[in-house]
Amino acid sequence: MTGYELKNNARKLMRDNAPKLFFISLLYVVLGTVMAELQIRLPVRADAYDVYLDDLLSGNLPGFGTIQSYFRPSGIPFAIALWLLAAVLDTGMKNYCLKIVRGKTADTKDLFDGFLFFGKILLLRIVTVVLIVLWSLLLVFPGIAAAYRYRQAYYILLDDPRKGAMQCILESKRLMHKRKLELFLVDLSFIGWLLLDSMIVIMAPVSFPLPIVSILLTPYHGLTCAAYYDRLIIELSV
Predict the structure, then answer these.
(1) Cβ neighbours around 87 below 10 Å, total
(2) Residues 86-110: tens digit of each pLDDT
(3) Nearest-angstrom CA–CA distance, 34 and 25
(4) I need a labelling partner for 185 at 20 to 30 A (CA). Which of 59, 93, 142, 145 fits?
(5) For residue 211, is the peptide bond before it cis, meaning its omega torsion is within 30 degrees of 0?
(6) Which of 98, 190, 187, 115 has its CA nearest to residue 148?
(7) Residue 163's CB: how many other CB atoms inside 10 A?
């Protein structure tokens, strides 16, 4: 299936599974937004952003010591824990979308099924991030390629939770061989939605804006990517 066909199929699935799908998306977006905000705010002083902006506007570029003073050591472990929990929630959304793509019954509990094997998800997140960072030390493009190389690892784990993190990573590498640009172009086709979502968040008159567009974009992109994975394993198994 082409990217156009994948997106058309995703829109059809969105219509067929409304309004429940959008309730799940709303729940995911709210939880994800809260965790993302806490990840940012926990490690820093309450007025850190104001101080940082004041320094920039006054023409004083904050040095390492000044930036270091923004952080509260007690908040950093909680921020890391939230970052790892976000990986479990994200895997749950992938699980929900994959079930819809395969015509299975999907329920709210599927969003939290990742907690049944959260240890493997956390290990998978840590290992993939370390690998991507190491590749990024060479140049930007090897880092981007690495991110796409390991993109299917979470779906592979969902299909068989008995597999280890490294096995999922290696299988993802095999699946994405000569396919990375293909999936990159699928992601690129959503750039307009992402820009619109960012503009609404930035221009919102409140300090804790909810990314409204994400409620539509999350299932749209999630179903497209899940369908891509499903087609990929079917093609390679023929």
Answers:
(1) 20
(2) 999 999 999 999 999 999 999 999 9
(3) 14
(4) 93
(5) no
(6) 187
(7) 19
- Helical (H) or strand (E) element with 55: helix 48-57
Range of the domain at 115: 3-237
| Length reported for the chain | 238
Helix/strand/coil for 71: strand
Quickly tell me which residue has 């030390």 as its tokens. Answer: 137
Amino acid at 168: C
Per-residue tokens: 148: 């796409």
> What pLDDT does residue 177 have?
92
Quick check: 152 and 175 in contact, CB under 8 A? yes
**DSSP-derived secondary structure letter, 46:** T
Q: Residue 145 is encoded by which pair of tokens?
A: 């390629």
Number of domains in the chain: 1
Give 45-81 pLDDT, tens digit per residue: 666 767 777 777 777 776 766 677 777 777 888 888 8
